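Researcher: Predict the fold of Ribosomal protein S18 acetylase RimI-like enzyme.
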Amino acid sequence: MRLARVEEAGALSELALRSKAYWGYDEPFLEACRAELTLLPGEVTSRRTSVVEIDGRIAGFYTLDGQPPEGELGNLWIDPEHLRRGIGRGLWQHAMGVARELGFTTILIDAEPHAEGFYLEMGATTVGTTPSTSIPGRVLPRMRFDLK
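Model: Structure tokens for Ribosomal protein S18 acetylase RimI-like enzyme follow.
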């Protein structure tokens, strides 16, 4: 696990899009999500972006947004070729460790619907829904994790 580098913004954005595509969304849907899934170079640092590498290639990343006491897990994406290998759990644990160190007490997540089960397994609770910023009329699970 390491901090992401500014020059990796494009690769991270493409990884997020590949990960979203894994769930079978069609091209028009993915294009509608592209802007939301794009991490700009200036955001890599400001959004506290960390990556995990396997064999020198980025296998997943997360962003931790906000200021204590309440933050947001803005992204947590795994390259589809590395799914179901514990990488998501490792990224989650790292993100929550960083959040604790920074003084966060609550982390909110606007979850990809297919990932809601993962976040529930990690101990988050679904507290409602939030409108998608990419797809009009679509809602996402709004989740909460209280750091102990």
